[in-house]
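Worked problem 6 (solution included).
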Amino acid sequence: MKIGILSRKSNLYSTSRLVEAARARGHQAEVIDTLRCYMNITSAQPTIHFKGAPLDTYDAVIPRIGASITFYGAAVVRQLEMMGVFCVNDSVAITRGRDKLRSLQLLSKKGIGLPITGFAHSLDEIQDLIKMVGGPPLVIKFLEGTQGIGVILVETSKAARSVLEAFFGLKVNIMVQEYIKEAGGADIRCFVVGGKVVAAMKRQAESPEEFRSNLHRGGIATPVEITEEERTMAIRAAHIIGLNVAGIDIVRSHRGPLIMEVNASPGLEGIEKTTGVDVAGAIIQFVEKGVK
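Solution. The predicted structure is:
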């Protein structure tokens, strides 16, 4: 089987592990730079080209679409879908997962546990928005942020108003979320592949002053045993967004587990090194079943 990995860089850990895992199982694997792809959109025979040659010989594609190229990356995946190529995550699911607000709205509709989240456009509604999420301390998030970037904890109403006014003035889309104090700066990353949680790790903020647990922000990862409720919640969340491969971030609160975020291109390095699970191999096995 010939597998393409859509990725900007072949030397990234996640990309190189997927290539290694595919080749270990006897497949041909190649890295395709997403931004070097270009498309011929016709009603009869849509095609996609890469470095002057058509991409029409792949049995499957594993998208690794970065946040900065979501629009173009989703278009490339969509074109491959039109050509009948099996894509591990489809274009609609990728754009759903990348839009924090949309993904939370979809999960809310299905009754998935979430932190109280507010969204507004007008400066006149700031005070009521703050009250809506339970007042300070609260978390302000960029809708397009990743890896903990654009996530701010504010501890007073005055500070929250100042930050919100600044972001509204800059025309930045943000949402306001309740702060789950009892989580203690920790969350759980569940890695879902093909409707199963194949690995899970607990991420802990490096210090009491830092509430973000992202490994890119210095968070410390350890293996964790998740409950059946958490397992079911992670699987349901991935299914609702439409993702076959997803990183589901959960916090433990006084009212039970809550979904913080759904990641359509979760990194493999932290989860594999922390748990020792061959997550890349699990993804390749899912590809084999999907193509068959």
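Discussion: Residues 228-241 form the longest helix (14 residues).
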